[in-house]
Specification:
With 437 residues, the protein is α/β, with parallel strands linked by helices. The protein has helices at residues 11-17, 27-43, 45-56, 67-76, 79-97, 136-149, 168-176, 187-196, 213-223, 250-261, 276-290, 296-304, 314-324, 357-362, 398-414, 418-433, and strands at 2-5, 104-109, 112-120, 123-127, 153-157, 181-183, 206-208, 230-231, 239-244, 268-273, 307-310, 326-332, 346-351, 388-396. Helices cover 45% and strands 17% of the residues. The strands form three sheets. It has a six-stranded parallel sheet, with helices on both faces. Strands 6-5-4-7-8 form a five-stranded parallel sheet, sandwiched between helices. It has a three-stranded antiparallel sheet with strand order 2-3-14.
Length: 437
C-alpha cells in the first residue's frame, strides 16, 4: 500500500488518489451477455441446460431444487451454523421490519384528497452467486426484506456446484427465509430466465443480487427492455474506507482493510488518517496479516490498488471521505458518533473499534447490499422500500375542482398543452352550468 500526503497533492493527483480500479463494461462481455440473454429468451430451458453444461460443467435434467436436496443441505450444516443463520435472519428481520412504510392520506386543500398506497412488487428474482465464496448471507439480505414486503412470488437462482447440487448454506438460508422456489442456474443465463421466464423458471418484475461482469451486463440489458425486469442497484467491486486517528489499533485497521480487499482483485481498501505513524504501522500490519490468509493471491492484487492517505486532521479526513463516497465507511476514532453529522456520502457506517464491517455483512441487522463505486452519493443500501411500490391516489370533490381547477388550466396553458387544459376546463364548465349527473 502506498502512503500519500493529501496536502502535497494537486487537484489531478487527488482525483487519482480516490480513483477506483477501472471498471469498463467491455464490448466482448456485453456482446456475450446479450447473446446469452437472447438465446435464453428464445430457447428457454434448453438454453439453460446447455449453458449450465458449458459454464458449470454440469448436466442437469431438473433445474429446480427438490425437497430432498433441501433436507440434505440441512444435514450438511452443523447445528451451530444453522443457529448462526437463524440469529442473523432474526436481526435482519427486526431492523427491516421497522422500515415498513405506511399508507397516508392528506387533504391538501378543501375537497382535494391525496393518498399513498403501498403495494409489494408481485414477483421478485433473487440472484445469489456461488463462485470461490458462496454467499448464504446474500440470501438473508435479499430474502428477508422481500418476505417482509409481502412479495407474493420470490424466486431464487444460484449456480450449481460441480457435483450438480447447490451450496448447502445457500439452500438452508433460503429455506429459513421462506423461499420455496429455488433453481440451480447461474450467470447471465439466470438473469435472462428470471427476466423473461422459461418453462421451469417464472418471470419476475425485478431482479436483486450481486454477480460478475456478465451478470451485471445481463441485468442492465433486461432492465432496458420493457418486456424484461428492473434491477436493484448499480454495482461495482466491494470497497471500504477507514478513517482513523492515533487512538486506533493498527492491527484492527489492517484487519478491516483486508476484510474487504479479499472479495476480489478489483476490491479497494483505503485508510485516511492524520497520523503518519499509524499509516506506516497499518501498512506493516497489512503485509504481516496477508501472509497467513487463505486468499492471499487475491489480496496481493487488490492491496496494490489500495492506499493510505495522510491528512491534516479529522475534519479534512471526513471531507475526503465524503468525496470518495464509500460503500463501507469505518470510523476508528475517539468519540466516533460526534462525527456522524459531517458524513453525507456512505453506504453503511461502522462506529468505533468494536464495530467491524463483517458484522454488517452478516448479522447486525443492516443490509449488506450497498451502493459501490461512488454511487453512495445518490443511492441508498437495499431496504424493504426496494421491494414495494408507492402508488399515489387523488380524489377531488366538485368544490375541490372548482377551487383548484383554474390553477391547473393556467399551468397547462403556460406549458402550451391545451388538451391538458381542456380536460379540466370542460369539467369546470359542467359544474358552472349545473348540468352535473
Amino acid at each position: 500500500m502506498r502512503v500519500l500526503d493529501w496536502n502535497t497533492l494537486d487537484a489531478g493527483s487527488r482525483r487519482a488518489a480516490l480513483a477506483r480500479p477501472a471498471q469498463e463494461l467491455r464490448a466482448d462481455i456485453l456482446n456475450s451477455a446479450r447473446e446469452i440473454v437472447e438465446t435464453v429468451r428464445r430457447e428457454g430451458d434448453t438454453a439453460l441446460r446447455a449453458y449450465t453444461r458449458r459454464f458449470d460443467g454440469v448436466q442437469l435434467d431438473e433445474l429446480a431444487v427438490t425437497r430432498a436436496e433441501l433436507a440434505a443441505a440441512r444435514r450438511a450444516l452443523r447445528p451451530e451454523q444453522i443457529a448462526a443463520l437463524e440469529r442473523a435472519i432474526d436481526n435482519v428481520r427486526a431492523f427491516h421490519a421497522a422500515q415498513l412504510p405506511g399508507t397516508l392520506s392528506l387533504e391538501t386543500m378543501p375537497g382535494v384528497v391525496c393518498e399513498r398506497l403501498i403495494r409489494p412488487i408481485p414477483a421478485v428474482g433473487l440472484y445469489v452467486p456461488a463462485g470461490s465464496a458462496p454467499l448464504p448471507s446474500a440470501v438473508v439480505m435479499l430474502a428477508v426484506p422481500a418476505q417482509l414486503a409481502g412479495c407474493p412470488q420470490r424466486v431464487l437462482c444460484t449456480p450449481p456446484a460441480s457435483e450438480g447440487g447447490a451450496n448447502p448454506g445457500v439452500l438452508v438460508a433460503a429455506e429459513l427465509c421462506g423461499i420455496e422456489t429455488i433453481f440451480k442456474v447461474g450467470g447471465a443465463q439466470a438473469i435472462a430466465a428470471m427476466a423473461y421466464g422459461t418453462k421451469s423458471i417464472p418471470k419476475v418484475d425485478k431482479i436483486f443480487g450481486p454477480g460478475n461482469a456478465w451478470v451485471t451486463a445481463a441485468k442492465q440489458l433486461v432492465a432496458g427492455d420493457s418486456a424484461g425486469a428492473a434491477f436493484d442497484l448499480p454495482a461495482g467491486p466491494s470497497e471500504v474506507l477507514v478513517v482513523a486517528d492515533d487512538s486506533a489499533s493498527a492491527d484492527l485497521v489492517a484487519a478491516d482493510l483486508l476484510a474487504q480487499a479479499e472479495h476480489d482483485t478489483q476490491a479497494q481498501a483505503i485508510l485516511i488518517t492524520p497520523s503518519r505513524a499509524l499509516a506506516d504501522a497499518v501498512i506493516a500490519a497489512v503485509d504481516a496479516q496477508m501472509r497467513v490468509l487463505s486468499r492471499r493471491a487475491i489480496l496481493e492484487k487488490s492491496v496494490a490498488s489500495s492506499r493510505c492517505i495522510v491528512v491534516a486532521g479529522l475534519d479534512e479526513a471526513l471531507v475526503v471521505a465524503n468525496e470518495y463516497a464509500a460503500e463501507h465507511l469505518i470510523l476508528q476514532v475517539r468519540e466516533p458518533r460526534r462525527y456522524l453529522p459531517q458524513i453525507q456520502n456512505a453506504g453503511s457506517i461502522f462506529l468505533g473499534p468494536w464495530s467491524p464491517e463483517p458484522m454488517g455483512d452478516y448479522c447486525s441487522g443492516t443490509n449488506h447490499v450497498l451502493p459501490t463505486y461512488g454511487y453512495a452519493r445518490a443511492y441508498s443500501g437495499l431496504s424493504v422500500l426496494d421491494f414495494v411500490k408507492r402508488v399515489t391516489v387523488q380524489e377531488l370533490s366538485p368544490a375541490g375542482l372548482r377551487a383548484l381547477g383554474p390553477v391547473a388550466v393556467t399551468l397547462a396553458e403556460l406549458e402550451g398543452l391545451d388538451a391538458h387544459a381542456s380536460a379540466v376546463s370542460k369539467r369546470l364548465a359542467l359544474l358552472n352550468s349545473g348540468d352535473v349527473r
